[in-house]
Amino acid sequence: MATIVLEDGEQIPCVIRDMSVSGAKLSVARRFRLPEYFDLMVAGRDLTCRVRRAWRRGDFAGVSLLAADGVLKEAAEQGRTP
Question: Cα(80)–Cα(82) distance, rounded to whole angstroms?
Fold first, then answer.
């Protein structure tokens, strides 16, 4: 589970379907319009990433991680590579 946080403070629930050091695939209801840039808060990880929307198809969206320091550290600790 995760939350998309928009510039105006609006929060949109979503599910991270896949995540790597460079990006993520999100499941988010198509009724929500996603801006080009937003913050992604990952539930249970105390992790917030600044992201850029790369694509949108139906109930899915792909994002590129812009501020990935926390993700890089976490991935290294878990032995994952990009």
Answer: 7
% pLDDT > 70, the chain? 82
Give the pLDDT band of residue 21 (cuts 50, 70, 90): confident
CA end-to-end span of the chain, whole Å? 21
**One-letter amino acid for residue 23 of the chain:** G
Quick check: pTM over 0.90? no
Which residue pairs, CB below 8 angstroms and at least 24 apart, start in 36-44? 37/66, 38/4, 38/5, 38/6, 38/7, 39/4, 39/5, 40/2, 40/3, 40/4, 40/5, 40/14, 41/2, 41/3, 41/4, 41/5, 42/2, 42/16, 43/1, 43/2, 43/3, 44/1
